[in-house]
Amino acid sequence: MPYHRADTSAQADKLSGIVEESDLYEGFAPHVETSEIKTLDFYNLPKQTGKEPALRSFTEIQQLLQQGKKHIVKNILRENSWPINSPIRSQLWPQLCAQHLTKSNVLDGFYWEMVHQVFGTTELSEKPIMLPAFVDATHCLPYHLTGTGRSVADRIVNVLGYDCPDITYSPVLYPITSLLLHFMSEEEAYLCLAGLVGSKEKTFINQTKLQHEVTWKTVMQIAKKHAKSAVAYFQRICPGQKLERVFMDWCWWILAGLPFQHLVRIMDCYFHEGIKVLYRVALVILNLFHKECQSNNEWSPDNIKNDIGNALIKFCKKIPVSPAKLLHAAFSIRGLSTQYISRIFIKTEMLLKSRSVLNSGSKQLIKSRSSDNLPTSQSQVNIQMMSHTLTIREGEKSPGHRAIAMGVYPIHNLKSQVCKNEDLFTLWSWLPVRITMYQPVLLYTTEEHGCSLTTFYVRVEQHEPTLLMIKTCNNEVFGAYCSSRWFERNVKDDKGQRQAYFGTGETFLFSLYPERAKYPWVGIEGDRDLGHSSELFMAADSKMITIGGGEGQAIWMDENIRFGKTDSCKTFNNPPLCPSGDFEIRVLEVYGFVGI
């Protein structure tokens, strides 16, 4: 018999903490083996004072989401300890995941059409299904799913792999699928996963080996600051064991270690806030484990030094705090903002990418003011060959609009008002390799669209990345590759304040005349803490735009896109991009890339 969320809607708002025995498992889907689930863990529950606020209902949360009050919803999810068997999750989790869906027009029945396309039938096979290569076979955690439930999880993961071929490595995807299936139908679980995987604003599930490695290294870097004593203790008791080995399995402390009731409460918050919830929980686990190591012989140095990673998972299985206390501790960690985590993540990602290039021997890191900046004769040939598939034409127009087409004019015939063809070849060789696979489109030029920052934002702000090229009245040519949307100038942090700077370490500066040079982010050159002033990539408001900061601004332009100034800055370690420092803009061109 199929499971329908509507069947539980009447119960979803009945959230009393006291549950009748006959209704003990009313919140779970039919493909769950409920006999092993502990619904109430009395020794961990705080004493009732009679003053506890009533638990919030799904209807209240749904209304807040519809009103865009995500911050209030975040606090509700953190504070409301719904019972493990509460029917609210059959509606709450799908609603939370639906926020992140990029395909808002997914048609009813889409999932079952995909199932039929992949398997030739919608009947659930009794034979085992071969799982996609991105699944970690050692961590296909079913939790409390029945045999049928596991088969359903296998099928969902296969269909998702078919629909999302870009997923190449995602060990946590299967456990998340299993958790979703405890509270909803197969189709709803698939739609939830589609939302989590496709989310653009927040990260939920890593989908490549690079992302996976960057994530555990990010957790390790954060732990060195926010769980400093624990990390130092581990290094002291087992100096011969690399710390990396411990943190590579950080997600399994949570997903494979913690009791089910803890895990479900963590998911309540995770489906709204993203992977940063797991970062916080991991830090609390480290600190609690370190504390236990000081007082409990079970976790003495002699017992854990040979395998700290496994000891951590065993510790998590009998963690000495309730789900509520665990989350309270996690969200009480100060100085762990989304912006801070993002900076660590991006820096780690850039370092890994740069080392990968060095190790491959196929490319070299490009250093400022170096002949290494310039493309070799062979690379120019390669670029020109590639350029025959990268074409630009005047398109179906709103006034002044330029579009992309195949086979009209190759890129070396692009009529740029800023730079020459050979400069375009050089600039193309400096772009991230994946970007050179997309076709450029002229988004904005002062020659056609006028000199207005407002117009600039209207035409450019939703594109990512963008390429800015400036020609001054003294014929200097320089600019920047900007890795993030200019719209991010409007994005607010957790406190409701606009962020001053945004962007990532892929942003770089360049000069094409009178000399050619590329100035990459200084953080790409070494694994060291460079400070906030070296991570000031992009800033903008209604009066100006800035690229690069820290003891100077690499590029600054006024609201009329007429005058600007350039100086050396810590973010890119660049000299002024024109000799005088101040400049008057003759032409500004901004390019985007089609298909990204």
Automatic annotation (TrEMBL):
Alphabetical list of InterPro entries matching this protein: Rab-GAP-TBC_dom, TLDc_dom
Pfam families listed in its UniProt record: RabGAP-TBC, TLD
Limits of the TLDc domain: 417-594
Database matches in Gene3D superfamilies: Ypt/Rab-GAP domain of gyp1p, domain 3
Protein name from the UniProt record: GTPase-activating protein skywalker isoform X6
Organism: Drosophila albomicans (Fruit fly)
